Structures are given as structure tokens and as C-alpha cells.
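User: Could you go from structure to sequence for me? I need the amino acid at each position, not a summary. C-alpha cells:
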């Protein structure tokens, strides 16, 4: 227990860092001078705890002025530093639950990472030319939020949490390289194809702007039960290196209540195209069961091949979509 009372415990440090930053921000409100803040944010990465402590101590009447100052100092910073990510750590906490009638534009390559938007309520914000790295949306409430010309290196949305997306717009000039919809039972959906990412986001109430060709493709895309089962099974390889026959036969989380189709139709088709192969290990020898592993392609390449008619797996996806 003594270790939690030590002054150098991380939470003590985070609290006093937030207190120091609060003093500097309060000074900025009266002086409009942010060089001390800029130097403070330049040195090292701040934790989410610092931002959380800080946000509870700021005067709500000064929020917009503080945000304006943080964005101004980033605009004048021309070389890479911790400033981009530290501002990205602070802003969601500072703006959480803050009501404003005017639009707030956050731009100039501010970087947002990880769990920073979980359990946040944000409104009337445009994110322009920002980076989102492995962002998770869980119990997130967005109202009148727009994304333009942003890069998403991994976007994860908790499908069974209390997310609310009210007039959320993602323009066509954004780049999302992976979308994961996760569920509480350990199941998930994962997409890499631009038009399928669009479909999934649209199903969650997010307004995605896409080019006409992609929109036409989305409108004609139909998903059979076999297609959906195939994608759900492939998604299992994003978390496991092996899929065991015994698990597929006995556990609904692996067979989706259709073990015969998975074992007798889906597995053989994956083997036919060299996507998986049977692999023996200690567990299979002891239990007298089979196991399959990915053979030539990683999971992201398999999913991206759905959009690429020149890929060696184009025939595989064509057969999956033709299957009744």
C-alpha cells in the first residue's frame, strides 16, 4: 500500500502537471501570451490523466479562448514535436460536454490517438487535416461534427455501446485504412475496402460523402448469408493465429450457429484458394482435431483484395459473392 502514497506515484505527478498547466492557461486568458504553454507541451507526451484533471479545473467561460490559443500555437509550430499529440490529448477533454453555437475548426495536423474520444460528448466541431491513430469510439456522442481531409490509421467503434452520431459527416477526401466494429461477445467486423467502410459507417448513422462511382457500387452491393459468414470467420484470424475444428463445431462464437456451412463449405473454399492451410500442433495431436492457419496472405490483404480485380484473390471474392 505504501507505493500508492509515494509522492512519485504517476497519478501524483499527473495531478501536479495538470495544476501547473492550469496556472499557465489561466495566465494566457489574461495575457494572451502562450510561449510558456508551448514550451511545456513541447517537452514530452502528456497522459490522458493530466488532461482529465485539467478539464475539471478550467473555467467554462474560458474554454473557447483556451482552445483558440492551443490551435494558434500549433499553427506557428513548423517542426515535429510532442505539441501536436499533446494538443490532441487536451482538446477532447477540454471540449467534452461544452456547448457552443459557433463552429470550432480544429486543423493543422493535430494528432488524436487511442481512447481519447471514449465517453466524450462533442458538438459543432470540424476536424480538418488531422490525424487519428487507432481511435476508439465507445459511449461517444458527436453532434454536428465534420471530418475533412483527415487520415484515420485504424478506427474502432464499439457496436453495443451508447454511441450517438447526430449529423456526423465524413467527406470523401478523408482516408480510413481500417474500420473495426467490435461487440461485447468478442465478435467483430473488420473492413478495409473503401465502399464497405462507407456502408458500415452509414449503417451507424454517419453521413459519408463518397464519389459517384463508389456510391453506385454501394447501392448495387448485396450481402448473402454466405458472404457474411465468410467475413465473420475471416475476422477471427485478426485475433487468433489458429482456428480449431473443435471450436467451430461446438462454439457459436466460432460457428455463428451454422457449423455445417462453416466446416463443409467455407473452410474448403478458403483452402481451395490457398488462403488457409491445415496445421498440426500439440493441441491438435492431443485432442485429435484439426486446426487452420492463414497461408500466404495476411488478413488486411485478403479484405483489400475484394476491391482489386487484378489481385490473385479476385476470383475468391467473386465466388463468395456468387454463392447462394
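Assistant: Here is the amino acid at each position, in order:
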Amino acid at each position: 500500500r505504501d507505493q500508492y502514497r509515494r509522492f512519485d506515484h504517476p497519478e501524483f505527478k499527473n495531478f501536479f502537471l495538470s495544476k501547473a498547466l492550469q496556472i499557465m492557461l489561466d495566465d494566457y486568458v489574461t495575457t494572451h501570451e502562450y510561449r510558456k504553454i508551448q514550451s511545456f507541451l513541447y517537452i514530452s507526451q502528456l497522459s490522458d490523466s493530466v488532461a482529465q484533471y485539467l478539464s475539471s479545473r478550467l473555467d467554462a467561460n474560458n474554454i473557447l479562448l483556451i482552445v483558440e490559443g492551443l490551435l494558434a500555437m500549433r499553427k506557428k509550430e513548423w517542426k515535429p514535436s510532442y505539441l501536436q499529440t499533446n494538443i490532441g490529448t487536451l482538446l477532447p477533454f477540454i471540449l467534452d460536454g461544452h456547448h457552443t453555437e459557433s463552429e470550432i475548426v480544429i486543423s493543422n495536423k493535430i494528432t488524436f490517438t487511442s481512447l481519447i474520444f471514449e465517453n466524450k460528448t462533442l458538438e459543432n466541431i470540424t476536424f480538418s487535416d488531422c490525424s487519428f491513430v487507432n481511435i476508439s469510439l465507445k459511449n461517444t456522442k458527436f453532434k454536428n461534427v465534420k471530418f475533412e481531409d483527415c487520415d484515420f490509421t485504424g478506427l474502432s467503434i464499439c457496436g453495443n455501446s451508447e454511441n450517438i452520431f447526430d449529423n456526423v459527416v465524413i467527406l470523401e477526401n478523408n482516408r480510413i485504412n481500417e474500420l473495426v466494429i467490435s461487440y461485447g461477445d468478442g465478435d467483430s467486423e473488420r473492413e478495409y475496402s473503401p465502399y464497405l467502410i462507407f456502408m458500415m459507417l452509414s449503417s451507424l448513422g454517419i453521413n459519408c460523402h463518397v464519389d459517384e462511382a463508389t456510391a453506385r457500387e454501394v447501392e448495387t452491393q448485396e450481402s448473402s448469408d454466405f458472404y457474411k459468414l465468410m467475413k465473420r470467420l475471416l475476422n477471427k484470424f485478426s485475433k487468433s493465429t489458429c482456428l480449431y475444428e473443435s471450436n467451430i463445431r461446438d462454439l457459436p462464437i466460432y460457428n455463428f450457429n451454422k457449423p455445417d456451412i462453416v466446416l463443409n463449405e467455407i473452410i474448403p473454399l478458403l483452402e481451395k484458394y490457398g488462403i488457409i492451410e491445415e496445421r498440426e500442433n500439440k493441441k491438435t495431436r492431443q485432442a485429435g482435431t484439426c486446426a487452420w492457419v492463414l497461408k500466404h496472405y495476411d488478413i488486411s490483404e485478403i479484405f483489400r483484395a475484394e476491391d482489386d480485380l487484378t489481385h490473385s484473390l479476385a476470383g475468391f471474392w467473386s465466388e463468395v459473392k456468387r454463392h447462394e
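One structural detail worth keeping in mind: The two ends are 62 Å apart (CA to CA).
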